[in-house]
Every structure is written in structure tokens, then in C-alpha cells.
Amino acid sequence: MPDIVTATDLTRRYGEGVAAVDALAGVTVAFPAGALTAIMGPSGSGKSTLMHCLAGLDTPTSGSVTLDGVELAGLSDKALTELRRDRVGFVFQAFNLLPVLTAEENITLPLTLAGRKPDQAWLDQLIETVNLTDRRTHRPAELSGGQQQRVAVARALVHKPAVVFADEPTGNLDSKSSGEILTLLRRSVDDLGQTVIMVTHDAKAAAIADRLLVLADGRVVHDGDAGDADQVFQVMREVVA
Ligand SMILES: Nc1ncnc2c1ncn2[C@@H]1O[C@H](COP(=O)(O)OP(=O)(O)OP(=O)(O)O)[C@@H](O)[C@H]1O
Question: Which parts of the sequence belong to the ABC transporter domain (predicted)?
Fold first, then answer.
């Protein structure tokens, strides 16, 4: 499988002088198409910084990122915005839905912003997959947390992006809703061929991944098969002292 996202010798330094923090201290990693990768690591290890640099939301201090064959360095803000809009899907811990839009309007927002019409058959399939057929016209305030996150997952997939970035997608959910969201992310890879990169603190969430990447102090300290939740725990115990 070709690599959808690559990072080469990535560093990200915040601040200057004695106050400088090396959030990323030289990360080289590639994410092949059609795989679900979980990124774990202690608080402050650089997970969000890595995800933001990979998604073109933050600019690395040095090193290179490619996304769907495009080198991000040197792209204008406009080109970066378009790249994110057209080729990236995002799922955040805090759902980030627009309160005035219905569930369906939130789902189609990436297409609306791009001035494109949804493929109705695909949209119906997606809404059915996330089990929201009877909630299409509800606004976020009328939906449970789990339902809101299912809207967010459908929104991340609606434009068939090259890659979906999920930042602690189950962080705000009870275990039943978490399970539903993880199943959806897994199905997006298995049934739709999506590529998903997910930051998580939860070993159960990481256990649905094909691959587990662990960061510590801005470096990759483990890269291997995810295994089940017990194996994820074991890896975390071994590599993060
Ligand atoms: N905008 C910023 N300005 C200064 N320092 C920052 C900034 N963003 C992150 N950092 C620092 O960079 C390091 C890595 O932060 P990052 O948010 O990537 O970690 P993380 O692994 O995602 O942590 P968490 O699990 O707590 O979300 C931390 O020491 C953090 O304080």
C-alpha cells in the first residue's frame, strides 16, 4: 500500500532560549493507506503536536510532511486550507458540530464549504452506517454525546478524504458510545478502505488499531502491531517508564 502520510525528521520547537520545548525531537514515520494507527504516549509526549503537523494545522520547525503525495512545506495558507478541506477528515474529542445546523447539514458541511453537492446514495449509506437515519433533522443540542460524535464521524468521511485524523475521539463518551465510535472507525477502514490516524489515551481504543505508535519526549519509542488491550497496556508499561 502507498503511504498516505509521511513525516521525515520532524521537529517542532515551541518558545526560545531556556524556555524552549522540543515537542517533537526528530520523528520519521509513514502511514500506509487502508490502515488504522493508534498514537499513544504520556501527557506532553508530542501526540497532538505530531497530529497537528501531519494535518497541516501546525508548522514544523524542521523536517518534511507529505499528505496524499503533497509536500506541505511551502504551501500557502489558502492551499493548506483547501488541502485539509478536500483530503482530510477530522474527529475531535469535543465533537465540534455547528449548533444551528441539523445533523445532516453538519455531515455535509465539508462538501458545502467546497461548493460541492453530496452524492445522495453515498450520503444515505453513510447516515445509515452511523445509525442516524431517524435523526437527520435534529440539531446537536437534541442529540446525545454518542449521537453527536457519530455525526462528526460521518462528517469526517463524507468527502472520502485521503486520511482521517481522530484526536481522542472517545474522550468524552461513555463506554457504550465509545464502543460504537470505535466500531465505526474500524468499519471505515475495513469496509470503506479509509486510512485513520487516532490519538488516544485509552488502551481499549488503541486495541482496535492495526498498529500502535508510542511517543515519549517527542520521539517514537515503539512502533508495532497493536494487539489487544492487554498487549497495549504491556507495551505502555515496558516503553514508558
Ligand atoms: N503552543 C504551544 N506553546 C508552547 N508549548 C507547547 C505548545 N503546544 C504544545 N506545547 C508543549 O509541547 C509538548 C508536547 O505537547 P502535546 O500537546 O503535543 O502533547 P500530548 O502528547 O498531545 O499531550 P496530552 O496527552 O496531554 O494532550 C508539551 O510539553 C507542551 O507543553
Answer: 5-239
